[in-house]
Write a structure and sequence with these properties.
The protein is an alpha+beta fold and 91 residues long. The chain has one domain. The protein has 2 helices and 5 strands, in the order αβββββα. The strands form 2 sheets. Strands 1-4-5 form a 3-stranded antiparallel beta sheet. The longest helix has 11 residues.
């Protein structure tokens, strides 16, 4: 694991808080969203975190979102550590 150090591989909050977190809040009017699916997953291979400029290492937990946006399928990973930072600031 290079770069960012992860303090815990397990999410520190209930799964529902990560699912209810909407990183795209306010962007919904910019395009048509269909077939949206959100879940929290354990990363099986390194993925790119859309919140910060880093990779999410294998074995970490992440919010995974997939949707058909303006007719094209897209997927996004947001590591739980980055979401925790946002939620901590909002509390």
């Amino acid at each position: 694991m290079t770069g960012k150090q992860y303090k815990s591989m397990k999410p520190k909050r209930p799964i529902e808080e990560y699912i209810n977190f909407d990183p795209f809040d306010g962007d919904k009017e910019s395009g048509k969203i269909e077939c949206k699916r959100v879940k929290v997953v354990k990363i099986l291979k390194e993925q790119w975190c859309c919140e910060s400029d880093h990779n999410i290492p294998k074995g970490s937990w992440s919010r995974f979102e997939s949707a058909k946006y303006d007719g094209e399928w897209s997927k996004w990973y947001h590591c739980c550590d980055c979401i925790d930072k946002y939620l901590d600031e909002w509390e």
